[in-house]
Amino acid sequence: MDLTPSLKAQELHKKLAAFMDQSIYPNEKAYAEQLHMAKDRFAILPLMDELKAKAKDAGLWNLFCPEEFPQYCAHGGLSFVDYAPLAELMGRVVWAPEVFNCNAPDTGNMEVFMKYASDAQREKWLTPLLNGYIRSSYAMTEPQVASSDATNIELSIVKDGGEWVLNGRKWFITGAMNERTKIFIVMGKTDPENANRHKQQTQVLVPKDTLGMSIVRPLTTLGYDDAPIGHAEIVFDNVRVPLENVLLGEGRGFEIAQGRLAPGRMHHCMRLVGAAQRSLELACKRAVSRSTFGRPLSKHQSVREEISRSFSEIEMARLLVMKTCKQIDEQGPMQTTDMIAATKTTVPLLVQNVIDRCMQLHGAGGLTEDYFMAEAFNYARWCRQADGPDQVHQMALGKQIIDRFAE
Amino acid sequence: MDLTPSLKAQELHKKLAAFMDQSIYPNEKAYAEQLHMAKDRFAILPLMDELKAKAKDAGLWNLFCPEEFPQYCAHGGLSFVDYAPLAELMGRVVWAPEVFNCNAPDTGNMEVFMKYASDAQREKWLTPLLNGYIRSSYAMTEPQVASSDATNIELSIVKDGGEWVLNGRKWFITGAMNERTKIFIVMGKTDPENANRHKQQTQVLVPKDTLGMSIVRPLTTLGYDDAPIGHAEIVFDNVRVPLENVLLGEGRGFEIAQGRLAPGRMHHCMRLVGAAQRSLELACKRAVSRSTFGRPLSKHQSVREEISRSFSEIEMARLLVMKTCKQIDEQGPMQTTDMIAATKTTVPLLVQNVIDRCMQLHGAGGLTEDYFMAEAFNYARWCRQADGPDQVHQMALGKQIIDRFAE
Amino acid sequence: MDLTPSLKAQELHKKLAAFMDQSIYPNEKAYAEQLHMAKDRFAILPLMDELKAKAKDAGLWNLFCPEEFPQYCAHGGLSFVDYAPLAELMGRVVWAPEVFNCNAPDTGNMEVFMKYASDAQREKWLTPLLNGYIRSSYAMTEPQVASSDATNIELSIVKDGGEWVLNGRKWFITGAMNERTKIFIVMGKTDPENANRHKQQTQVLVPKDTLGMSIVRPLTTLGYDDAPIGHAEIVFDNVRVPLENVLLGEGRGFEIAQGRLAPGRMHHCMRLVGAAQRSLELACKRAVSRSTFGRPLSKHQSVREEISRSFSEIEMARLLVMKTCKQIDEQGPMQTTDMIAATKTTVPLLVQNVIDRCMQLHGAGGLTEDYFMAEAFNYARWCRQADGPDQVHQMALGKQIIDRFAE
Amino acid sequence: MDLTPSLKAQELHKKLAAFMDQSIYPNEKAYAEQLHMAKDRFAILPLMDELKAKAKDAGLWNLFCPEEFPQYCAHGGLSFVDYAPLAELMGRVVWAPEVFNCNAPDTGNMEVFMKYASDAQREKWLTPLLNGYIRSSYAMTEPQVASSDATNIELSIVKDGGEWVLNGRKWFITGAMNERTKIFIVMGKTDPENANRHKQQTQVLVPKDTLGMSIVRPLTTLGYDDAPIGHAEIVFDNVRVPLENVLLGEGRGFEIAQGRLAPGRMHHCMRLVGAAQRSLELACKRAVSRSTFGRPLSKHQSVREEISRSFSEIEMARLLVMKTCKQIDEQGPMQTTDMIAATKTTVPLLVQNVIDRCMQLHGAGGLTEDYFMAEAFNYARWCRQADGPDQVHQMALGKQIIDRFAE
C-alpha cells in the first residue's frame, strides 16, 4: 500500500504551500474585514476574485479534477491519494478552497457534469464552472425526511407538457444564495411507486432564476451563516424546466447520488485534517507565547499531553484518509464503502475534539473570529451531519463488519 | 444535607414554570424574528419589554436577590438552594433570564452595588438596575493577560486632580453594547507596585458616555454575537471619572472581584442544567416523531442509551450544583471554593456534551436556530472559558485536594 | 430532599471510621499474606474471624439490616440514606464488608429470608447467616441466556414425588465455593409455558451438600478469583429438595428477584464510591511523595487536573447514590427504577475510570497487589456486568425517559 | 510512503496465518488447562515445546530478527514494516509469540546480544536463545525511582577485585521466574557522579544462579501473573560477576537501553493491534449468536455503532504502527522518536478501550478466561505503564511538537 502521491502532485503541493504562505494566510484579516463590511454577505468579495486570478495563473486551479477526466484540467488529473494532501493544505483556511476552484459543493457538482451530463449540458454549465465564472448548488436534503437515505427524498418531479414540474422543499442547499450561483442540480422523485426503490429518483437541472423557486432563508449552524457560500432553505412551487434538463435519464437519480457523495465525504475529511493540523500549530505557538502562574503554557505537563494527544490523533486521521483514498484509487468507491464510512464517521468528530482542545488553550479569545479555529470547529461539527448523521453510516458499516467476521 | 428549597421558593417555582409555559416558550419564535429584523441588534426588543412588565406584575422579578438583602426585592430574598431551581427553569430559554431581571452580568453587578457601594452610588445605579430600566457591565477581562488570575489585570487607574484616569483595554465585556447599558464597573490597578498583590487593584464606576471609552467591536463566540446583550472589546483612553466613583475604596478591587465571581459561576451552572434538561426533552420528543430505516428513533437501542446517559449526567450535574449551593448557604462562598471549582469545571463541559448528543439526534436541523440547542451549546462552551479557563480552576482545586489527603 | 443520615447512622459512621482506622487498614497486608499462604483459597482466614468478632463486639454488625426489619439487628434498622455512607466506608477495602457481615451476596440473601421466607426457613438459615456462622449463594445467572432478563432463566424445576427436581447450569454464583457456604437460593422455571412470563419462575432452597449439585470451576474476572468468596460455575443434575424448600410459593420467583436486586445494585454502587474515594486519596499521597523530572507529581498541572476531575466525579457519583437512596426510602424501589438504573449504569463506569487514572499515577506498581486499586478496578469493571450489562438497564431507562417527556 | 511488506514477508504472513489456524487457536483450551494443572506455573508446558518444534520446522522462527542481522535467522531478516503484520497475527493469542521465539523480553534481549555483545557472549547466550533453548530477562525497572528516565536507575555496580559487585532492587523483571531463564541483562550505575548523566550506567550479564540474586515474589497486574513468563521483584545483594560480563563497555549502559527500547515498544503495539482485531472478530461472532429482548445483538443499533467505532479505531491504530515502522526502516529509531512516542501513547489505550467494549458485548462471560479478551485487556492496560507511563512519553512528544511548530 503505497500512500505516496505522484511526482506531479508533489510539485503541486510545493507550489500550493508557497501560495498559501504568500497569498492566503496574509490575507485572512483582509478577507474577514471585506466580509464584515459587505452589504450583501453572499456577494463576491473583491479579494476572492483577485486571489482566484492569481491561483489560476499559478496553475493551482481545479486541483480536485480526477484522473479519469484529464481533459478538464491543465494538470491532467489527480488521484485521490494525490489530491488529499492538497485538500489538506487548502483546509487550513476555511475559505481557501474556493480560491483554487476546489470548494464544495462546486467540485462535486462539476464531477456530476463530467460523469453524467450531456455535451450540451456540459458546455452550458460545466465550462463556466471550471472557469470559476459561475457557482452551483446540489439540492438533495429535505427537512421533513431522513435524507441520508436517498430513497426517502420526497420532492415531486412530474412530466407535464414537455416539461418537468417540481414541487417540494429542500434545505441545507449549500451555495444557493451566492450571487454567482446559476444552476441547481435537484434530486426528486419521478416514479414514487416504482417497486425498485432505487429507480424512483431523477435529477434535473434548474437554473437559479426559474419561476417558482424561492429561497426561504439562510440557515445557520452554531451561529455561522457560512457566507458568502452559505446554506439555504428553498421552496419549489410548480417550478418548470424543459425535459432536456434531466441528468443522465429519468429514474437514474439514485445512481448519480451514489457516484457524487463518496468523493464529497472524502474531500471534507481531507480538509478537516488540515483544519486540525493548523489548530495544533496555533496551539503550539500559543503555548510558547502565553504564561500563566509564572510559567509559559508550553512547560505545563497538561499542555504537553494535549499537544501530544492532538498530534497523534491527527496522524491517525490523516492515515485513515490516505488509506481510504488509496483503496478508492485502486478499487473504486463502490468497493471502498467500509473505509469511506470509517473515515466519514471518525475524522470529523476527532477533528472537532482536537480543535476544541486547541481553542481552550487560547482562552476566551479562542472562541472568537480572531482565530481560524471557531469557524473550523463549526465545520467539523457540521460534517458529522453532512451527507447523513454519522450514526446512519455507522449502522451500515457495523452491519458490514459483523457480516464479514461472523461467518 | 437538606437540598429542599424553602416553601416560598417552591411557590415561586410553580409560578415561574407556569409563566415559562404561557409567556416564554410560545414567544421564542417571535423573539427570534424581532431580533432578525432589528436594525440595531443591540437595541431593546419590544417583546422583551412586554414580557418584563408581565413578569414584574407576576412577582417574578429579581429572583436572584440574595437573602441577606431582603430590602431589595419583593420576595424577601432567596438562598442559593432556593434560587438554583428557578435559575434552572430560566436557563431553558437563552434570553429568558432577562425577562425576570436575572440575567448576567446585571445580577452580579447588582450584588456588587448591594454589598460594596455607597448610598449615593446605590441610589444612582442600583435602583434603576433593580427596576430593569438600565443595564450594566463588568469590565475585568483583558486580552493580553490571563485574567482568570485577577492580579494580572493591567488597566491603569491613576489619581489625577480629583479624578481617576483610566487607560487600558478590556474584552468580553458582556452587555457593553446594549442600548440600555449605562454604567461600567471597571477593575484596574491603582498601585501596581504594592508588595501585597491583592491590594493593587481598585474598581471604579464609569458611566457609558464617558469621554475616552470606546467600543472597538462586538465579539463573537462560535459565530454568536449574543445580541442584544453581547460581548465587547473596549479601549479606555484617558477616561476620567470623579474620585467618588470608587467602589468600596482604593486597593479593594480584588476583594470585590472575589465576592462577585463565585455567585456568577454558580448562576451559569444553574442555568446550564436547565439548558441540558430542555435539550434532553427535545431529544425525547424527536425520538418519537422521527423514523429512520423503518423504526422510530425511540426504538433504536443507541438512542435509548444516549437518552439514558444524558438523563443520568443531568441528574449528577444538578446534584453537584445543589450541594454546592447548600454549602455556600451554610458556610459562605469562601469556605466552598472546592465545590464551586468542582461545579464550574464539570457542569459546562458535561452540558456541552449532553447538548451535542441531543443536537445530533435532530439531524442537520439540530445545528440551526430552529432549536434552542445550538445557542445553548455555545453558551456551555463559552462557560468553559468564562471567569477563567477550567484548567485554572482545576489547578487550584487539584492542589487543594492533594493538600487535603496527602497529609 | 434531605440527604442527611439519621443521628444513629452518624454515630455508627464515626465508630465504623475508627474501626477501619484501627483494625482494617493496618491488617490489609496481613490479610493478603494469609490468603497467599492459604492452601485452600476458599477457606476461612483466621484474621477474618478475629475481625468479625471484634466488629460484632463493637456493635458494627449487620449494618445493612433495613429499617423495616428492626428485629434482626441490634441497631434497630437503617434506611438507604443511613446505610450508604457506611457502605462507602466499607468499600474502601475490598474484603472489609464481610467483617461487618455486610458482604454480597449474603446481605441480599438475608433480605430475601427476611421478606419472603417461612419461619422455619428463617430459623434454619437466617439466624446463622445473621450471626455470620454460615454463608449463602444466590443462583440466578445462566451462561447460555441473557440472565439480566429474569424471564429468560432456563434451569428446570419439576415437582416429582414430594420433591423439587432441579436440572440446569448456573454461573457467576458468588460465594459458592466458600467453605462456610451452606445454602443456595436457586431460581428456575416451574411453569415455562405459563402465558404470564412473570409467573413461570420459582425459587427454592438447596443446601450445599445436596446430591447432584457440583461446582464445575471457579470463575475469574480480569484474573481475579475473588477468593475466599469467589464466583462459581455450577451444574444441577437431578438435584432433589423437599417441597417445603420453596420460597414464598410456586410461581413467585420473579417477584422475589425483583425485590432482591434493587438493593443489591445500590449496595455495589455505595461501596464503589468508597473504592474511588480511597483511590483518590492514595493518588494524592502518591502525588506528594513521588518526583519525576525534578518536580513532585503534585506540581504537575496534568496531575492536578486529574485529581480535580476525580474529586468532582466522585462527588457526583456519591450524590447520585444518595438521591436514589432517598427516593427508595420515601417511595420504595418500584417507584425508583429510573434512578436505580441511572445509578447502576453510571457509577461503576465512572469509578472504573477514576481508579484507572489513580492507578496510572502510581506507575507500574499501581497495577499490582501492592495497592488496593487493581482489585477495586476489577470490582468496578465487574459491576458493569453484574445484575445485567449496563446496556440492558440503559434500554429500560431510555425508554422510560422518552415516554416521560415525549407525551 | 509505501507500507507494503516485502514479498518474503507476505509469504511468511500466509504461512503464519495458516499455522495460527491449524495449531494455535485449536490449542488455546489445552494450553489453558495445562497451565491450570501445572504444579509450577513458571515451568515449561509440554504443549509449548511441541508447538515450538512445529513452528521451527515450518520456518516460522525468529521472525523478529531484523534485516541488519541476516546471519541470525533462516529467513534472512525482516524490516519493521515486514514484521508488523506478523507480530499482529501472533498478538491474536497472548501466548503465541513464544511459539515462534518472538516473545518479549527475549526478542529485545537477543537484539541486544546481536548489537552489543562480544563474540564470546554471543556464543554463550545468543545461540541458545535463538534456538529457544533458554530464556532471558532484562532488569532495568526499579521500584523506588521513576525508571522511565533511565538516568534515575540506582542499582549499584562496583568494580572490586576483578569482579562487578551488584547491589539493589529491581521489579517487573519479565521472564525472571521462568524455569528456562538462564541469563539476566542488568542495568545499573558504575559511575553515579559522572557529570554526563548518560555515562553513569553500565549493563552487565548475570547468570540466573548467581549467588546473592534472589527473586522476592511474582508480581501481578490486574490479577494476572502472566505465567509461565511472568514479572518478578528481585533483590541483588552483593552479586558478583566477572569483569568480562560487561556489555559493550563500562559507562555505555544508557546507549544500550536507548537502542533496545524503541523496538520493544513497537512490538507491543503490533501485537496489541492483533489483540484488538481478534476481540472485534469475537464481538462480531457474538453479535449474531446472542439475542436479547427478541433480537440478535447484531440488529441493535448500539452494537453496530460500537462495532463500527472499533473497526475504525483499529484501522487507525494499525496505520499509526505501520507509518512509524516505515519511518524507523528508513531513518532509524533515533529519527523516529516522535512517531514512536505517538504510537506508544496511543495504541495501548485505544486497544484497551476496544477490548473493553468487546468484552462488554459478551456479558459476564466476557471478563472470564473463557475468552482471550480479559487477558488481552490486562496486556493493553499494562503496556500503558511498560517502558514508562504514557505521560512521560507525552511530555517528551508534546515538547518536541511545540518546538517544531512554535518557531
Describe, in plain words, how this protein is organized in 3D.
The structure is a homotetramer of 407-residue chains. Chain A has 407 residues and is α+β, with helices and mostly antiparallel strands. Chain A has three domains: 7-131, Orthogonal Bundle (Butyryl-Coa Dehydrogenase, subunit A, domain 1); 135-251, Butyryl-CoA Dehydrogenase, subunit A, domain 2, CATH 2.40.110.10; 255-405, Butyryl-CoA Dehydrogenase, subunit A, domain 3. Helices cover 49% and strands 15% of the residues of chain A. Chain A contains twelve helices and nine strands. Chain A has a four-stranded antiparallel sheet, with no helix packed on it. The first copy, chain A, has a three-stranded mixed sheet with strand order 1-4-5. Chain A has a two-stranded antiparallel sheet with strand order 8-9. In chain A, helix 4 packs across helix 8 and helix 8 (253-289) runs antiparallel to helix 9 (301-331). In chain A, 58% of the residues are buried. The mean pLDDT of chain A is 96. Chains in contact: A-B, A-C, A-D, B-C, B-D, C-D. At the B-C interface, helix 8, helix 9, helix 10 and helix 12 of B face helix 8, helix 9, helix 10 and helix 12 of C.
- Average pLDDT level of chain A: 96
What is the count of structural domains of chain A? 3
What's the CATH H-level homologous superfamily of the largest domain in chain A? Butyryl-CoA Dehydrogenase, subunit A, domain 3
Note the run of SSEs of chain A as H and E. Answer: HHHHHHHEEEEEEEHEEHHHH
- Rg from alpha-carbon coordinates of chain A: 21 Å
Helix-strand makeup class of chain A: alpha+beta
Oligomer: homotetramer
Low-confidence stretches of chain A: none
Number of helices of chain A: 12
| Helix fraction bin of chain A | 40-55%
Tally the beta strands of chain A: 9
The CATH topology name of the largest domain in chain A reads Butyryl-CoA Dehydrogenase, subunit A, domain 3
Main interface by residue count: B-C, 50 and 50 residues
